[in-house]
From TrEMBL:
InterPro entries listed in its UniProt record: DUF3048_C, DUF3048_N, YerB-like_sf
Domain DUF3048: 54-195, 225-333
Any single Pfam family the record assigns to this protein: DUF3048
Biological classification of the source: Bacteria, Bacillati, Bacillota, Bacilli, Bacillales
Protein name: DUF3048 domain-containing protein
Top-level taxon: Bacteria
Species: Metabacillus rhizosphaerae
Cited Gene3D superfamilies: YerB-like
Amino acid sequence: MFKGKFSIAIFSMLIIISACSNKEEQRSVENIDSNQKEEKPVAAEVEEKVTYPLTGVEAEETELNQRPIAVMINNHPSARPQSGLHKADVVYEVLSEGSITRFLAIFQSEVPDIIGPVRSAREYYVDLSKGFDALYISHGWSPTAQEKLEAGEADYLNGLFYDGTLFWRTDHRKPPHNSYISSENIAKGAEDNHYEITAEVEPFEFLSEEEVVNLKGEPVNNFVIKYDNSQTWHATYEYNQTKQSYSRFSNNEQTVDLESEEPIQLSNVFVVEMEHNAIDNYGRRGINLTSGGKAFLFQNGLMQEVEWENRDGRILPVKDGELIKFVPGRTWINVVPDIEKAFLIQS
């Protein structure tokens, strides 16, 4: 009887000791696991590169919501050199009357202190600005452009109503080649008219550094876009391998900023053929911005024969239906009525 009770007591103690031992082992394993978890190296946080939406260039600031501003800039010989044009992210060069071209300059990453000379609006420039939901700046307008703007198709500031206030006239040039506006006055005009000055800007698609290095195409370093047989209306581009950018020349004079003398430096030159037709006796044109068609794209000293499409109001390069990305930097788009007559490769 005693032996039985003693055996039961011993057995119970063994169970208790075993249970305590299992708990200690479990705690030990948990501590090891915990220590191992703590000792695991923490992955370094990778900072996402912030780039400007229309240039793809890295930006220091994180607030990139400047609403695009589209300014009609004069390209008459009496208006050269222009002010602020070198800071435009995108420039459309398009015929206005006769052989005269004008620039629609889209500013987003930078808005220059001085912009001009400012000239009058045309309906197709208004349409091009709408692809960026831009605040449209002009001094004057054609009847069809007036209809579009007064119908509310774009927010606008017109020098006809602000001459001597938001816009000013310089002494060193004669009208109509002497109207200018500033970034400060654009902001004031937007505020007075209750226009938005910030926006979420839809970005272009850009090539990576590796994709830029591996670009394919025909080597072309110098070429001319002719809007007339006269040199006055020739736009010449030269690619600099060292700077990896294109310089632009009008009438054999380099396109530079009037105030700083800083030259235009471009990463993409896009030449597109669009149907042009006369719409009045004054020589104003209508231009088909929607049909798509022939185009040449110049990047990294190489030429690609492509096509253009209008996608959500923007004129973009495509090949076999696929969008072609831009090289990070500034882009110039030359619109011509006949690409074979307008385009000339220089040796």
